[in-house]
Structures are given as C-alpha cells and as structure tokens.
Amino acid sequence: MTGGPLIVQSDKTLLLEVDHEGAEAARRDIAPFAELERAPEHIHTYRVTPLGLWNARAAGHDAEQVIDALLRHSRYAVPQGLLVDIAETMARYGRLTIEKDPAHGLVLRTTDRPVLEEVLRHRRIEPLLGERVDPDTILVHPSERGHLKQQLLKIGWPAEDLAGYVNGEAHPITLREDGWVMRPYQRQAVEGFWHGGSGVVVLPCGAGKTIVGAGAMAAAGATTLILVTNTVAARQWKDELLRRTSLTEKEIGEYSGTRKEIRPVTIATYQVLSVRRRGVYPHLELLDARDWGLVVYDEVHLLPAPIFRMTADLQARRRLGLTATLVREDGREGDVFSLIGPKRFDAPWKDIEAQGWIAPADCVEVRVTLGQAERMAYAVAEADERYRLASCTPAKERVVQDLVARHTGEPTLVIGQYLDQLDTLAERLDAPLITGETTVAERQRLFEAFRSGEVGLLVVSKVANFSIDLPEASVAIQVSGTFGSRQEEAQRLGRVLRPKGDGRTAHFYTIVSRDTIDADYAAHRQRFLAEQGYAYRIVDADDLSQDPDGRR
Amino acid sequence: MGGRPPRAVPGGGRAAYPMVGACDDDLMQRRRGTTPRAPHPAARSLADDLRHRTDEQLTTLLLARPDLARPTPADVVALAARATTRTSVQRALERLDRGQLQTVEALVVAAEPNRAGTAAVEDVAALLGGDPTEALDRLWSVGLVWWTSSGPHPVRAVTEVLGPHPGGLGLPAGEVSSEYAAHTPPLPDDLPALLAEAPVAARAILDTLTWGPPIGAVPPSGPAHQGASWLVTHGLCAPSGIGHITLVREVGLALRGGRLHREPALQAPALTDAQVDPAVADRVAGAGARDLLGLLDQLGDLWTALPPRVLRSGALGVRDLAGLARSLDVETAQAGWLAEVALAAGLIADDGELTPAFSPTPEFDVWRSRSAGARWATVAQAWWESPRAAYLVGTAPNGGATVGALGPEVRWPAVRGVRADVLGELAGLPAGTAPSAESVIERLLWRRPLGDRRALTDAAEAVLREAEWLGARALGTLTSLGRALVDRVPTAELAAAADATLPASVDHVLLQADLTAIAPGPLDGALGRFMRLVSDVESRGGATVLRLSGESVRRALDTGWTADEVLDTLRDSSRTPVPQPLDYLVRDVARRHGQTRVGAATAYIRSDDEAVLAALLADRSLARAVLRRIAPTVLVSQADPATLVEVLRAGGYSPARESFDGTVVVERPATRRARPPVARPAPEPTLSPVDAALVRSVVATLRNAPERPVAGAAPPVTLSGSPQETSALLRQAVSDSLAVWIGYADSNGRTARHLVRPVRIDGGRVYAVSGESDSEQLFMLHRITGATTG
C-alpha cells in the first residue's frame, strides 16, 4: 500500500506519478473507472465520477476491483469515505434493468424492490411507465425507453439496458483491407463496441475514428445511418467508406441541405435533422425511412440537443458514438451515457501517439506586441470589440510570414476566425483562402490539391475546425480562435496530428497579442494543450529568429 | 390502565448527564480493571466510616464525586454531611452504571424492612440474581453505602432520591395505605393457587403492574374495575388514592420470582471484537488528520477573504454554512463541525466589529506557522475540551429553533463527558480492537442508565464520527493519537506523537507545463508558506495540487518577492525543471508589476497653471506642508486638506477646497459624536477541574482538621455550615431521631445555641423538640446558622 504511484485526493481526483515504476500497472487498473482529466508531463490527473463508475460497471468491473485498484496503487491511506462512496455508487447500477419479457414486451425490472418504489414515486418517471406486471416488474412503453433511461440516470439509478436491439435490414458490408489493415486499437474499439451493444468509442483526432465506424458497420452487416456534423464531413465519410469498404457509390446516400438521398448507408448532417419548421422537425422521418440496423454518431461531444431527443426514440437500434472527448462544454455527458451508451473503448491520446499513429507535436505560442496606436485603440475599445482588435493586429501578419517562410516545403495551414484578417493574410502570403462562402466543390478541389502537395499553404477559417481531413498538414498557425474553446483547440491540434509519412514533428503555432484578452484566451487553450501532455513554449515574436527552430 | 410512574430520579435528560470531571475516575477504574477492595470496618455513621478510610480511599471518593471537594470541607463530618445531601447523592447516582444502580435499588429494597436500615448481602444477591460484591464495593467507595456490623447501609438520601418505588416496586404492605391495614399479603407459596382463581381482568392488571410502574388507574366500571376489586379484596393490591391501586411490594416481588429486575445487568454488555491492524488504522488516521488540517487551513483562507456575518442570534447563517460545505467539498455536518472546532481552538472568532463577522484570529496565523503535529494537537485538545456539541448544528432539539453553527445554542457542556466516556470505552480495549458503533453505544447506555437515551445515542454517534474526522478513531478502533488524547498527555507530547503519525511533509514539488505544481505529500513550513503565497490550491488530499496563475504570482510580487527570487525558489524546491511557460509567466507578470503606482497622500493641490505649482514648491513658508510634485499639474502633501488650506491661506494664496468628485466644497465645522458603546459578551465562567492535585490538598485538609468534640461535650461556640450541609444533617437527625446542636439567629440577629431533636422538616420550617421540654418548637431553616450532631 505504501510507495505506490497513485495519490487519492479528497475531491475524488487521482494523481498518477508518470515516472513511477508502477505507473503503467496503476494506469491500466484505474482506466476503466476514472476519466483522464489532465495529462501533463509528470503527474496525470484522473477523476472518479459516478458516470465513470457506472461505465466501469457496464464494462463488467465491480466495486471490489475498483477499490482494490485504489488500495493497491495508492501511496497514502485512501479516505474511507471515498471507498464507501464508490461502493455505494457502483451498487446503484444494475438494480434496475430494462429487459425484453417474452410475454409482456419491454419491462423495467428490479432486484431491489424499494428502489423500484422510489423511482415510481418520481414525478417525471411515473408517466413513462405502464402497468405493474408483478411486484418487481413494470411495463415500459417502447417509445419511452430512452426517456426512461435519461430520467433514471438523472435521479442516480441508471438502468442497465438488456432489452437488445432489432437487427435491422441486412445489408452486407465488408472491409476491403487492401494495402492497409485495421490498427490493433481500432480492432479493439470495434470489438468493445460490438460486445457492449451500444456505446461510445473515444479516440483522439487522427486516430482513425472513421475506420472504427466502418468496422462497426461491417460487424453489423446492416443498413446504417451515419450522423455527422456538416456536409464536408459527410463527403469525407463517403470517400473513406468507398476507399475502405465494399460499399459502392450507389449504396451510399447523402442527406443534407442540398441532397436528400436515402440509401442503405445514409450520411446525414446534424444540421438538416435539427431544422425546425413551424414547431416540427420535417426531416425526422429519415430516422424511420429504413429499418436501420446501426446508427453512427460522429463527434458525439457536439451532438445538438434536438438530436438527443430523437435519439431517445431510437433505443431499439444499435448506436455507436465516436468522439475525441467525452467532455461536453454543455455538460450533457449524462445524456450521452444514457441515450447512446456507456464508454466502450478509450485510449489515452498520448499512448496512441507513443505507438506512432499520431505525429508528435511541437506547440509554440508566439507573443506579439501591439503598436502604440493599437494599444490606445485597444484600451478604449468596447469589451466586445477588444478580442477582434487584439486578434487582428497587423503585427501578427509579419510573424505568420516568418513562420511560413521557415517551414517552406511543409504542408501548412493558417487558421483564423476573422475574415478580414484572413483575406489580408491570404493576399500577403499569396495562398488560397477557404471560408464558409467557398463552394463545396472549390473547397474539395483545394483540399485535394493540398493533399496531393500541389498546394503547400492554405488559409482557412472556422470551417477547418470540424471533420475535414488533411492528412499531410504538418504545420498549423493559428492567428485567432473562438474565445479559448477547449474543443476547438483539440480540433485544431487534430488537424496537424495526422500521421506523417516520414515521422516528422508537427508544429502548432498560436500567435497571440501580449497583454490583451487574446493572451488570456490563449492561456486557456494552452492549459488544455499542456493538460493533454503537449509541452509548449512561449516565445516573443522578436526572439523568434533566435528560436532554435523547435525541431527537437 | 397504568398510572404514570413516578420518576425514580428526577431531572433525566440532557442536563442530567454527569459533568466531565466525574469521568476521569471512572476511566481510571475501567482501565485498571479492578475496584480497590477494602475491609469494611463496622461504622456508626457515614462520618465514622469516612474517618476510617485511608487517604487513597478518600482520594477515590473525592475524584468520583468532585462536588464534595469544592469548597474544601472543613472536616470529615462536614464531608459526610455534604455527601448525604440530596443533590450530591443525586449526582452520584447519575454516575452509576446500570449494574451499580440495580444494586443500589436492591439494597434499598432489602434494607426496607429492617429498622436499622441495613441489608443482608445475601438478600441483595438474591434480589439481583448475581454477585453484588463488586458493585457494593464501588458504592462504598463513592460513599453511597457504609457498613455497619450487620451489613451494608445505604445513605439515607439514596432511599429518598430513589423515591417510594425502587425498581418499579410498590410500597411494602406496612406502608401502602391505611385501608390495607386489615390485610396481610399472601405468602409467595400461596400465590399460584390464588392466581389460578383470579379473573382474566385481574390477571391482566397484574401482568401490567408486575414490572412496574406499580400504580394503575382503575376505570369506574367494567371488567377492569371488577378485576381491580378482586385484587384489592384478595390483598394483592391496595387502593392508592382515588381511583388508583398499587401492587403491594411483597406481592410484586413474588410475582417477579424474587428478582428485582426483569433484565439483570450487573455485567456490562459485551463489545463486538473485530480486529484491525493498529498500524493501518494509524495511517488512515494520519491521513484523516492531515485532511483536517488542510480543511481548517482552507476555512481560514476562505474566511479571511470573505468573513461570514454573525447573525443576531450569534450564529453563522445557514447559507454561509452551506457555502462553506460547498467550498470545502464536505457534508454540511462536517463543515459545521470544522467551524466549531476552529472556534474552540481559537482560530476563528466573532471579530466584534459594528457589523460582526466570523474571521480568523491572530492565533490562526501563529497556529499556521507551527508543525503539523502541533497544529493537530491544538485542534484535538480544543475538541476534547470543548463544551460545544457541534452535532446539534442544524437540528432542532425539543422542537425548538434550529441550532446555528457557532451560536450559543451549540453549547452543551455535558458533551465533554460523552466524549470522555465513548473514547474511554475504546481506550479500555487492546489496540486494534474495533467494536461496532452500536455495541459501543449499548455499553455507554449501560454505563449511564439515567441519561436520556436518545440524547445519549445521538451524542455518542456524533462523538464517534467526529473522532474519525479528527483522526482519533479510524477503522472503528482508537488510534494511538486518540489514546494519547484520552490519556490527556501534555500538549507538547501530543504534538510529538502527531508529528510521528501524520504523513511526513515533503520538501519538494513537481512543476508541470500546465502551470500546476504538485506536492506529492503534505507541505509544511517555509515551502508550504511560499507555495501558498505563489499559487492557489486546486485539490487536497494525500497530495496538494497547486495552480500558478498571473494573479497568484502577482500576489508574491506584491509581498516583495522578485521574479528571480520566485523562480529560484521554485527551481530549488522542484524535482523537475521549471517549465518554460512558467518561467515566461513569472517574468511576464513581473514585467507588468508596478507599472501603475499607488501611494497615499492626505491632500493634493492641482492647478492647470504649472507655474503656480512651481511657485508653491519654491515657497519656503509652505515648507511645513512638505509638498511633492507627482505630475506637472499635481502636488501632494501629507498634511490633511484643512491644514493645507490654512497653510496656503497664511502664505497669501487663495485655494478652494474640492471634494473627491471635484466639486468645490464649502467648509463647515464638523460635529463629532462618539460611537455607541459595543456590548461585550460576558466572559465564560472558568472552573478548574477537580483533579488529583486538588484532591490531595483536600484530603490533607481533612486529615489536619481538629477532631470534633464527641457526643456530650460542650458544643462549639459558633456553629456555621453551608445550608446544604445543615439541611442534610437535620434530615439525617430526623430520620435517626438524633439530637443536634443548632446555631439559631433570633429576630434581633443574635445567635444562640440550642440542643434540639428535629421531628420533621417541611417547607423551610424545622419542627423540633427543644432541650428538656417535650413540646414541638418551630425553627426557621434559613435562620439556622449551622448544626452539629451532639
């Protein structure tokens, strides 16, 4: 019990000393129930949450294992209260199960009658339930399966869903592994998902989530509905599926603002599903258009609220969630758990990087100083104008130029928020600009050119944030961002973290105006990077020329 | 059916719990495991008995009954008189365990038929169904029983305090009522035959009355009425007042099979005996103790930043308490306890300002600078001695108002006794024994049979819980720290023990690129202070996670650190290199630090005409205003504005005064008023405990007291004594039909001596037969200055 690598804190965080000899064993033992919150260089922080504990229960771990792991690896005595709390929390999962009864259909069953009585008395839950079959069993209307799970989780009695799934309309899909094979962790992710029934696979950007999706589709061998964030992502999914599976152009449909195709494999955007006209969602019927055997949710952490509501009605179908992080900025992690499913696979970002699937990254924050006139302008500006002013300082343009020059020959992205600034930059750098106004065709042409190496430098706006696939970008320069969102940072980092053919280091530059709100936001994002384990440096723009180039 | 039982001992409930002093001796007894055995020399009275006790036995008596030792009794007679007052006997009874109490009851019942007031040990044993020797020894040693040549004799007041129904028995046949005089109770042997013919209703009544209370109300008609009549007719019960019957004592005893108690409890209930590794328990306790120190630290920081207001009731607001619990991430109950402990240790206090608030005291800063062990020892001893029952916070005892933390209602001095009892119980076990909380509480209820069961249970549960928070108890067993606390070792020793048990503090931190510093163990001393200054705590526990931010670094710079000093200290105390972003952060903050200057001046002079200001600066007549130019158009001075205006006017200038917002003000003489006086709370009464040292001196006094003259000799010239002693002595004289000398003040204030034989005492009047005459005279009790047996 003494001298272990783990320190249990009273706020239910676990500190893991990375350099300790027992660290790997400890990490393996705590990973099933604790979420990795921060992974800087020496001490990693895990958090034990009820959701995490229930995830562990769903994966077949019991409280004894969890407590044993804590006691075995802990350096100091573990607070008794925490252990009791863990045991109690874990014991709450599975007291209620949702099952398919041969005689009565969908039922909620309990192993602990008082619990059933307690939830029955709940104002929000009572209307979701039907007749009482016997003292331990109560009917559930199939359409309320999702809502029920949501509500039960909310009051702390998560139900285990054992009711199974409809097989859906069969549609053979196979992976075409010609010249590539699924990576071991992708295979594990697919297996983890398939055995669990429904759930979420957590993989960092660039780790090949699309392939996990394709693998799951092959396992299901059924018609599939894929929900993605936007049209570009939809096209990329389509390309990837055509490349990796036996599916042909005719079998894959796109259901978006512009096209409304419903085919055995249909890729729809969140946007089109969330469209609301006169209080109704006209495109919801898509969900019933076919007898889907599998529903794939790309970027679960961005799933909009209306999709949650629809998902509640889809509980009889297998659901796969793909995401880089379970952390949602709106805090709806619980809905992901109850409506899509528990976490089925998770690999720490750093581990995958260490396996060589993601390029190591060098993160540098470059600080520029505003000119005297700009400082005055900034000082007197309205609060809502300040960020734009600080972000768009011309001082940044020179730095961008320097950096681009330094990385000539490496595929480079310049990413920004403000169109004026991007326009100027594109002009100055003589590089193509992609914004929201660029047509899809043009966008795809430029991406293709970038991919092939024909174009070495792209200036892109926010659109680059989500689900575009630029395999060969190895330098990203961020000139302005959206108020320090952690998600955005993950996305942008993901842009440059794709595996590089030659194992080169990826570079991630953020250009920040000193002493302004821009620096404050940058600090936010940087903290996230450091927490993800990326060492970063802060360099003054003036010192940039003396910087040892960052090639470590 | 069933009248209300007369309470055997009035004044149960919370207040009836023995005060702390009593328990030390109990504790010692328990720890030693034996009761001092003494030969019981036949004595004529309690005083006689006491006179023959050894010093050690007197010490035992005084420690067990501290109320006898203060004020120091003049001699053994006074001691005996004080020991037989009702109040003192009452207190002594409250300190008996269930076994001893049952023995006292049995003794009183057994002694009842005997005119001499003694009982045969065999009778007592029969009533108890067990060997009373040990209990009798203890009763003797606390002076509730003395021995005559024929057996143990309970002190008269015991019989009075226990009331007419000891053990729930009715009055004996001889005393029950005049109507009963015609009957004799049936012999026990005849009883079964008699009961066989009893009507059902009569049987039911008997069943109810057998184990007490022995008095029942009789309905005016119906079978119960007939049953009651049958019982009275056959001499089993006697009428007792209008519409009530009482079960005759002899019958009751026979129905009980000769035993006095339904559940004899001479022996203490067993404690469950789960075992844990004491070393593991100590480690858990060490972590708990560290946690506690961390939480108190945090509490101090929180309340330094934002001291919560003191409500008019003197308590902390419910919302503030909830806020504290949230900030500390503990349950409200624990938050309330923490606040109470901090108050008890003098770490926080009502600051007494106009709008009073609870804030850390200077003592808090001193406390903070001590070693972890010393900090723990201070807090632990404060808890151990505190007359405040923190667990009452948030409850509404007796349906009254909710008790607020830190308020006056939390005070319940008896909780000290509960602490001593509960932890003392655990201390009596071998190390590592972890009895269940239920069994400990069961044992406590046995030990304090007269306490309010619920209040005791609540208090004991709270004590067990709090001991765990403190680190005095862990995994159900008393830790070595807890043991030291119970043994009342001196603070320095306790601190040393705690220093050895608490996880050792670390002398380094790990710095990370996400601007956190992690201390992989507790931080103390200089490094702790530095890290607290330069960073903010993010999470506590085995380790401490600290976050460095621009704000926290600036705080360090504000107190005079330079960027290089901060970085050097960080480098020296870190096992890992200082990450580049941290280095950059510190330098960046230092770069901006002090760009804006703030200073104090009591007045300024401003003018758009720089030349005028230059002239002022140069003017020697204004030298005493000590002007300084801080900007081309602004001068500042340390003189107050009024003076400055005068000085300028005297120098021939014509300044105008302006207010803070720049408008010109017209001066008026200020009127001064004093602040209303702030009411200060009355100081707490202080009382030094009755301890071994005090008792030694008392015993010495007793030994050195001049012998009182024996019977027949001339009475002392003046008679004086405390009213309690006097009244006890007179009552004793009444019951023993003894003559006493009394000092009596007449209406002129002259004191005269009388030899009287008190007959009865009633409502402050003493009826006595005086001297030679046979007629009863009336003496007012309050005029009797003292009494002594002749």
From TrEMBL, chain A:
Keywords: ATP-binding, Helicase, Hydrolase, Isomerase, Nucleotide-binding
Family annotation (NCBIfam families): repair_heli_XPB
Enzyme Commission designation: 5.6.2.4
Annotated PROSITE patterns: HELICASE_ATP_BIND_1 (PS51192), HELICASE_CTER (PS51194)
PANTHER family: GENERAL TRANSCRIPTION AND DNA REPAIR FACTOR IIH HELICASE SUBUNIT XPB, RAD25/XP-B DNA REPAIR HELICASE
Pfam family, one: Helicase_C_3
Keyword Isomerase: yes
Lineage: Bacteria, Bacillati, Actinomycetota, Actinomycetes, Micrococcales
Matches recorded under InterPro entries: ATP-dep_DNA_Helicase, ERCC3_RAD25_C, Helicase/UvrB_N, Helicase_ATP-bd, Helicase_C-like, P-loop_NTPase, XPB/Ssl2_N
Reactions it catalyzes: ATP + H2O = ADP + phosphate + H(+); Couples ATP hydrolysis with the unwinding of duplex DNA by translocating in the 3'-5' direction
Start and end residues of each Helicase ATP-binding domain: 190-344
MF (Gene Ontology): 3'-5' DNA helicase activity; ATP binding; DNA binding; hydrolase activity
Family of the protein in this entry: Belongs to the helicase family. RAD25/XPB subfamily.
Name of protein: DNA 3'-5' helicase
Domain Helicase C-terminal residues, every copy: 398-545
Enzyme class (EC, first level): isomerase
